[in-house]
């Protein structure tokens, strides 16, 4: 009788453990099929604001930065994910934050600091889904496509340009972006949403009268979207940065 009782207890424990696993699996976001209903033609315009309990404040920042001068493809970029999670003004340290990439892998972000979850990955997949679960509180199914990779058509990387003449900076990309900003060594960010060219004046160049100066022009294109099912002000932002460097010849002007 003791043996049967022991077996019964073990069986109950096993069933209980399996039930717990099943419950966790049922509550977890399904990331394997995150993009099953999204075609390649739809992905460039993908914007789904998600849903949730309305109790979490979530700021999602995705930033793709080129690893080389004027990178021309997605593999030439490195992408940083940073998700800040707060509840009633206090950082949430025990959330599970999952990111899934279109035609790519999925990642669980690491808790790096108070309420901040981060990860750095190689490449840029353009469209991402983000899910945040913290106990009974959650924000799920947030989808956003970022801008396409842009490249500079002028000037040529490493080109020498006169220090006393304007420099024309131009670029190209598929599709539009919510915002576009150009920045140089000697001038602050300039908004360039409705154009693909900008003329840098000589006084906007970092230059010397007796030596060559290297100047970098950086273009950042941005898509942003408010998040539903989260506290007011929650937002997802995707930034794509590319740069081109030139040599500015000495100038006495």
Question: What does this entry look like structurally?
Answer:
By secondary structure, the protein is mostly beta strands. It folds into 2 domains: 44-147 and 224-239, Immunoglobulin-like (Sandwich); 151-223 and 241-248, Immunoglobulins (Immunoglobulin-like), CATH 2.60.40.10. The chain has one helix at 2-27; strands spanning 47-52, 57-66, 77-87, 90-91, 96-101, 106-108, 110-113, 116-122, 127-134, 137-145, 151-154, 160-161, 167-172, 179-184, 187-191, 197-200, 213-226, 235-248. Strands 2, 3, 4, 7, 8, 12, 14, 15, 17 and 18 form a 10-stranded mixed β-sheet that branches. Strands 1-10-9-5-6 form a 5-stranded antiparallel β-sheet, with no helix packed on it. A 3-stranded antiparallel β-sheet has the order 11-13-16, with no helix packed on it. The protein is elongated. Keywords: Signal. Residues 1-34 form the signal peptide.
Low-confidence stretches: 5-32
According to DSSP, the number of beta strands is 18
Q: Can you tell me the overall shape?
A: elongated
Q: Tell me which CATH architecture of the largest domain applies here.
A: Sandwich
Total domains: 2
CATH topology heading of the largest domain:
Immunoglobulin-like
Average predicted local confidence, pLDDT = 89
Give the end-to-end Cα distance, rounded to a whole number of Å. Answer: 102 Å
Signal peptide: 1-34
Keywords: Signal
Task: List its traits.
253 residues, Immunoglobulin-like, 2 domains, 1 helix, 10% helix, signal
